Amino acid sequence: MADPGLTGILLAGGASRRFGSPKADAVFGGETLRERAWRLLGEACDERLLVGSGGLDDPGTGPVAAIAAGLRAASHELALVIPVDMPLLTAASLRRLAAACRDAAVAQAGPLPCAVARRALPAFETEERRLRTVLDGLDTARVELDERELANVNEPDDLARLAP
């Protein structure tokens, strides 16, 4: 069930260079990675925003600028941010990030997925391109999540490796 007061931001604007084709369109478990991530955000959040790949304009300068675009459009004070390429994430883990959020919360491997308070938007409106650097400058909680859920897809073979 979606939590009221949470905005989900799906980052789907990467170049997919290593993958060789748009990752968001790759199929995993009968769904595209975009569909799967969108559904997951719907399980955890009552508002969902897509940045890049047919959604809000992706400034094309990496996740920091993309998160800034999502935070500017968010209706709620707290946002959960996920990349399109982590198909094993669960709503329970996203809720854990939200519950731990101060200015931000990240999993142990960070920087994505993360929870970010909208009041932290000025930190994302920067020339800095490294998300880890921006998050390190905030009051960021670290949350231990299942390592398997944090696996991401960089190459087509990763889809087979992650399949149940």
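^ that was protein a. below is b, sequence first then the tokens
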Amino acid sequence: MCILSYAVNLALLFYAWIIRKRFFCESFFTAIKLDVVFLLKYPRITITVSSFFASSALVMILVFPPYWLMNPPVLSRNTPIGITEDGHPWIGAEHPELVITEFSDYRCFQCKKMHYFLRRIIEANPDSIRLTHRQFPMDHTINPLVKEPYHIGAAKLSMLAIYATEKGKFWEMNDYLFNLSKDIEALNMKNIAENMDLEFDGMHYIFRDTLLWNLLWKDIKEGIQSHQLTGTPSFIINGQTYQGQIPADILLPYLK
């Protein structure tokens, strides 16, 4: 949908440029000046139309939250969490009717959006849906699908999440990492330790820990070989792979 919006906007811009070229319009700044003069000639119409669009914009701002400002629902003690037999963290129903396994990248905006969307659904339906989280950083340092530098540092963020899983702090770390600055150079281990209530001294070795790297590689390898993943976010439901989003007809039967 995002790509389609960009394409439409670009097409409209190009179309406007073609019209101007065809009819030999005046310069951009001259056109702006003429528009202002025209609007001032009809103040009643100008004020009415401007007020309408301004009020519409205000309603949109108040009713719909900004697209890029998202926060996860507060972790509730009423929503069960656990670890699968394979060591992957889950949240939601203890005896689920529907299990969703997500493969995600902490530097992927769409991953963040979909993850928070699913978390809110689970908060509202804690007895029917379970979300299992797995790592799939689109980082060229570890993911063989990525041939050039991309999502630099995402692998390190995934390792922090795996480390937190072992310490029983995955969901707190997960939410922290999704909201971490995209500037990986700003990654401050001491701040992370303080925010997650983890021992700072025990975090020095994380990025050199072969076991953590192997656990991360296992997720990536299985995602590619078993589920044919090509990007994030990706979801596995009843053995079927869905990339980007989950069809509404799959979720609807399990919602209250």
